[in-house]
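C-alpha cells in:
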C-alpha cells in the first residue's frame, strides 16, 4: 500500500483518487477551494460532455497537441471504459450528434457527484499546495569510457500546503488543471510546482474559446444564436476548417460551439490573418437559394427590402443584412433586380466576419500548453525530472477539439497513474 497525495480535486484528481483508493492505497486529496470539481458544472453548457463514443484511433485524430503521448493511457482506458465506469456509478448515458456522450439527465451535477462518490475512499483536505518537498537523489557514476546515465535529480516526498502544513507521501500527483475558468479553481498552480522540479512549461494559451472581432455588425446582432449554419475558418485566405452546427454573435465578436471548435485551429495570430465565413443556408445550393428568395419576394412583393427578408433571416439580422447588401432600404421586393438577388445569395452563403483575437483565458474552455510531455513517462505519467512526481489532465501539454475528448484525456491519464501504483512504487 502506498501513501498517495493528489493535488487538485477536479476531473483528473478525483478519477485518480477513486482508482487509487479502490486499489487499496491510502489517498489524500488537497483542494484549495471549498467546492471540488466545480469546472465539471460548466462543461457542455452545464450538461457535461464527459467523453466521445469512438475508438482509440478515431479519438487520437481529434487530439490537437501531442496525440502520440496519449496512446498507451488511452488504449488502457478508452472511452468505452469511461462510459462503463460512470454507468456503474449510476449515471445513465446517451450518445448525441458527433458521438458526444452526456448523462441522460442533462445535468453536469450528476457527473460531478459520481466522481465524488467514486473518490469517497480518499481523504479530502481543504488546502492548497505551496511547494513540493523535493529530496536530491544521488546520480550514478560514469563507467570508464562511458557517460553516466542520468536519472531523476530529485525524489518528491510530498507537498508543503499553503496553510503551512507539510503532507508527506510516497508519490504526488499534480492534477491542478490549466488556467481556464479560474473562478472554478484552475489558477495555474500546477505549473509553478512543475517548474520547481525543473520541468519545462509550454506557454499556456486559451483554446476552445470565443473569438474577438472588431466587425461592428457582431455587436449589432449580439445575443443572436444561429442554428444549423456552416462556419468556415480561413487562414491567410485559405480554408483550414469547417463544420456545421450552432454559433452566437456577442458584443465582442462570436461564440458558441462552432466558434469554440474553430478557435482551436488558430495559429500564431501575429503571423497570420484570419476570418470566418458563415453559410446561413448550408442545406441549399446557390441556385436553390436564389429560387427560394425569388419565391419569397413574389409573396412579399409590396414589402420594403427589410420586410422582404422576414422568411429568410432572424429579425435582428435583417437590418444588418440590408446595410451590408447595399440596397436602398425603401426598395420594394418586386423592384429588386436579378443581380441584387444574386448578391443576397452570396451574402447568405458567405457572411464574412474578421477575427482579430482570441478570447481570454478566464473564459476559455481549456488551456493549450502546460507541462512538456517530453519530460513525462506516457505509460505512467511519472516525471522524468523527479521520482515519485506525476501529472494528469489539463496541466499537461495535451489538448483536443471539443466533443468530450478533453475530459477523456483527464480520465485516462489519471487511470494510467493509478494503474502504475498497482504495480508498486520503486
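Residues out:
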Amino acid at each position: 500500500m502506498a501513501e498517495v497525495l493528489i493535488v487538485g480535486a477536479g476531473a483528473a484528481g478525483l478519477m485518480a483518487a477513486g482508482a487509487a483508493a479502490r486499489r487499496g492505497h491510502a489517498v489524500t486529496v488537497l483542494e484549495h477551494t471549498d467546492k471540488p470539481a466545480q469546472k465539471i458544472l460548466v462543461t457542455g453548457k452545464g450538461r457535461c460532455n464527459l467523453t466521445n463514443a469512438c475508438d482509440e484511433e478515431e479519438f487520437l485524430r481529434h487530439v490537437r497537441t501531442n496525440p502520440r503521448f496519449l496512446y498507451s493511457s488511452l488504449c488502457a482506458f478508452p472511452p468505452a471504459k469511461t462510459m462503463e465506469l460512470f454507468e456503474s456509478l449510476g449515471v445513465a448515458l446517451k450518445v448525441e450528434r458527433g458521438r458526444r456522450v452526456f448523462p441522460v439527465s442533462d445535468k453536469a451535477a450528476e457527473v460531478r457527484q459520481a466522481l465524488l462518490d467514486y473518490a469517497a475512499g480518499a481523504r479530502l483536505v481543504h488546502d492548497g499546495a505551496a511547494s513540493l518537498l523535493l529530496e536530491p537523489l544521488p546520480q550514478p557514476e560514469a563507467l570508464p569510457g562511458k557517460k553516466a546515465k542520468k536519472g531523476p535529480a530529485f525524489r518528491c516526498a510530498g507537498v508543503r500546503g499553503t496553510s503551512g502544513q507539510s503532507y508527506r507521501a510516497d508519490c504526488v500527483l499534480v492534477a491542478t488543471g490549466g488556467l481556464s475558468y479560474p473562478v472554478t479553481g484552475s489558477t495555474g498552480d500546477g505549473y509553478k510546482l512543475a517548474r520547481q522540479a525543473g520541468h519545462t512549461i509550454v506557454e499556456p494559451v486559451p483554446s476552445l474559446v470565443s473569438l474577438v472581432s472588431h466587425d461592428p455588425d457582431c455587436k449589432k446582432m449580439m445575443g443572436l444564436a444561429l442554428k444549423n449554419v456552416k462556419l468556415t475558418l480561413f487562414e491567410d485566405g485559405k480554408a483550414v476548417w469547417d463544420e456545421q452546427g450552432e454559433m452566437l454573435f456577442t458584443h465582442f465578436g462570436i461564440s458558441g460551439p462552432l466558434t469554440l471548435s474553430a478557435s482551436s485551429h488558430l495559429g500564431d495570430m501575429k503571423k497570420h490573418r484570419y476570418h470566418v465565413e458563415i453559410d446561413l443556408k448550408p442545406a441549399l445550393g446557390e441556385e436553390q437559394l436564389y429560387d427560394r428568395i425569388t419565391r419569397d419576394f413574389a409573396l412579399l412583393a409590396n414589402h420594403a427590402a427589410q420586410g422582404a427578408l422576414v422568411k429568410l433571416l432572424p429579425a435582428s439580422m435583417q437590418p444588418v443584412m440590408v446595410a451590408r447588401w447595399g440596397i436602398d432600404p425603401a426598395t420594394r421586393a418586386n423592384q429588386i433586380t436579378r443581380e441584387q438577388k444574386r448578391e443576397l445569395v452570396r451574402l447568405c452563403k458567405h457572411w464574412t466576419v474578421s477575427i482579430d483575437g482570441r478570447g481570454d483565458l478566464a473564459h476559455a474552455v481549456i488551456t493549450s500548453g502546460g507541462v512538456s510531455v517530453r519530460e513525462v513517462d506516457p505509460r505512467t505519467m511519472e516525471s522524468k525530472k523527479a521520482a515519485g512526481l506525476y501529472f494528469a489532465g489539463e496541466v499537461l501539454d495535451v489538448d483536443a477539439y471539443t466533443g468530450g475528448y478533453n475530459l477523456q484525456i483527464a480520465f485516462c491519464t489519471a487511470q494510467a497513474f493509478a494503474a502504475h501504483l498497482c504495480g508498486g512504487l520503486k
